[in-house]
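User: Predict the complex.
Assistant: Input components as received:
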Amino acid sequence: MTLWFKIGFRNLFRHKRRSFFTGLSIVMGFALCSFFIGWAEGTYNEIIDSLTRFRTGHIQIHARGYVDDPSFYRTFELSPVLSEILDSTEHIQGWSPCIYTGALFASESASSGGELKAFDPEREATTTQFQRNIVKGALFNNGEKEIVLGKGLAEVLKVKQGDFVVVVTQAADGITASERYRVSGLADTGDKTADRVTAYISLSQGRDLLWMGERIHEIAVTVDRMRSIDQVRQNLQRELKDSGLDIQSWEEFNPGFYRAMQADKQGNYIFILVMIIIVAVGVFNTVLMAVLERQHEYGLMRALGSSPGGVFAMVLSETGCLVIMASFAGMLLGMGMNWYFHVHGLMLPQPLSYGGITIQALHSDIVLKSVVIPWVTVLVSAFVVTLYPALQASRVDPARVMRSY
Amino acid sequence: MFELRLAWRNIWRNKKRTLIAGTAIGIGLAGLIFVDGFMDGMMLNLKESATRTWMGDGQIHAIGYRETLDSKLTIPEAGKWKSRLERMPQVKALSPRIVLSGMANSAYENRPVSLCGVDPQLERDVSEIDENIISGKYLQKDRIGVVIGDILAERLEVGLGDRIVLTVTREKTGELIQELFTVSGLFHTGVREIDRNFVIAPLSKVQSMYGGGEKINEIALQLDPSLSREEIRDFWSSFPREVIDAAGWKDLLPQMRTVMGMKGISMAVMSVVIFGVVLFGIINVMFMSLFERLFEFGVLRALGTTRARIRKLVIMESFCLGSIAVILGSFLAVVLLLIFSWTGIDYRGLDFGGTTFARLLYPAVRLRPFIWYSLGVWVVTGLIGLYPARYAARLNIKDAMKKSL
Amino acid sequence: MDLVIRTENVEKTYVSDSIRVKAVRGVSLTVRSGEFTALVGPSGSGKTTLLNLISGLDSPTAGKVFLKEVDLTQIDDRTRSLLRRDHIGFIFQAYNLIPVLTVYENIEYVMLLQGVDKEERLERVKAILCDVGLDGLENRYPPQISGGQQQRVAIARAVVSRPDLVLADEPTANLDSRNGKSLLDMMHDLNRKTGITFLFSTHDPMIMERANRLVILKDGMIDDDIVR
């Protein structure tokens, strides 16, 4: 067995240039495959993380049907039981309840329609940490009649910190409700569209304004690790089976973005496939050439008593050697590229909106996939492509071939 | 030319090998052409989604309006601008609008909306709201009804014939004014922002609510489609910047710039990658065909062929291979483009670059990518021949004729 | 009778698997116009190497080679190629012809290099095809004709460009005796008719018999030089 391997290995050096170029194309194909996978994973994970950890949470709990039809009246009760379950479930980092409603905001000089979100600042600090988005002033104090405006909304209303804004909306009993709040700060969430129409008050204020009692629209849940999302979701679904609640992870409550990402990933994989095909063709040509060249050699070996299987194994091991060595080199190169873009990243000249959120910089990720997938595809395609020439080699008729020498 | 004749016959000595190599390169070429068409189609789709459905080829505003969206920034001397624009040959259609930010209340819900007052007749020629009516009727001048987006209708839980209350602030006093309207039509443009936020009403009605007389804050334009890019640029820059803000869609959708820039980079990266991978595989093919003919090269040299002529011959061979690759690749590209031009690619509903894909994506089929990428592939394939050509030319005649394979 | 080839103490040493092989040692040979000469000797005697040195296909490690009094060692590769084109014809043991060129195209090749115009090429090719008995086969490709026919095409190609010298390296080695004789007759005929010098490297006793000069090589040196 090792004899075949030795011969196969040494044969590579008989034609250094040929082995070099074939090897080079494998290295390139592998490295690029590896890099593109790491890049795709990295950028998507970055976006997902950005979206979920700092905006929407990884899992959201709503009344049944709320995601498809976010009606103001689709509420659920934040019961002590529910709180208990959320507090005790493993891997949950934090959870934050909130209320949404449409409202008209009016300042002394202007008015604008928009959205009002009421949340519990203490709980919020454990999940999406909204307070990080405050660019001027501060988050409202719990219980105070204070409001935080999105940066764009503040500009439209021509107000600054310390000014007053009137909020007019429709309460849960259907009667118009209005209240005056002091602007405690301005927020920049990175989503320009949202910042132009959204304002934030504390949950208790929201409940007062809207006559909501213990009812809320949404609980955003963050987990400690992306990997735990499924587990947590399943746990919650089990515990809250008969509660009439929808417990959904980000793919489900933000399908637009998820679809965009999937579509992109598909494109990526098709590109990688094309590359691998081209590399495989190159390998095929080279191996075939090598085999045709050495017919008399194979004839000699057969005449000396080698079995067809042995010749077959020899050809395979020759290609195998080259492919494995080149793949190692390609893996190192690909990992190197991934590492570089992981640490340094790529800055976009202008922020780009994608699936509803804005991104500015992209980073690559170091994932197992970017090593495993190239290895598997390169090895499999190299193997498949060597089969035909190897078969040819083993079928060489010793007499015919040695005669012509 | 003799070398060309000989070169062409030489590459066909091994039909299978030439076809396989040509196909590998051709796949790369087809990939490039297709992706180029796909990205162009994507940008066109995004642009059309935005400009045809509502935005128009460009808009006129008062200075500062776009940054703050302050409805008080109405267009000065609107009447004059209107007639001036009507007389310009580049303007195919225009629609004066007043856009206010307000709230819509139904019996069940309230939502922030953009209330757009338009001249129903003029608006027909600029946007496609009238063509996207899915139930009910488009605005009629003498009727008091509004048309709203289908997503908005769902959120407000209203249908045809239901009533909604629209609240805006009056211009001078800042007081809130509310009016009751009947929903006389629903539209679906496919652009999420529009379907979710827009209420379209007759211009005169909204103007009277606003209390600003004949004031408008936006004029949307459709330009003559036969205008060249330079003519369009000249048109937009012909407006005095200190007096009025006139902007084409490129400025109104800054994200599109990023998207277009992305195409450039993506295609460049793809080209380099594909060429690199192809090249390293093909070089071996070329050397392979050389080695089979070493004795022949020796004979040619013995007969008095100069090194330069030998070089020329080999390079011609690689250009011939390039030609075959271009033919195969172009054919494959045409097939791919035809298939997808027929089926389309469904990215509908995805938000990207500031707007939504409203229609099926069709790849753009143009001659230019075919020409440029084919030329590039042809030249590069031909130039790879330089390396084997050098080798063949430098052959030691007597060594070549040792009948070594 | 002028000198076609003159070598001065020419030597060729090459390295094969780290062993120095002196293939040709100190050969001084002159060949005159019109000769029908055979180089003979056992395998390894340096026949092929000497032929390569004479034709300029290889360069000597010592000594000089004169082709019509032009020192081949002093000129650049391009000039050498042109000299070969104009003054030397070749007939190899096998694989003489370019397989993708027709018989006609193979024969006209050197004239193409020389820049001879189309009509004249046509004329001369037709004429030589008659001389070698192959007219009618212009448009066949080498794989479609027999070994003997291929060698005749090689002869046609070698002489049609009007060289001063034709070098033939074992031209009959792959042929049966009947074809071999036929070929030999043809070459001898051409030699007498046109005065082109023929220099063979051969084992074939038929050729040795027909030659009017035998140069016998042994271990890279001239052992004997017999003129008949």
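The radius of gyration of chain A is 31 Å.
Let me know if you want any component modeled separately.
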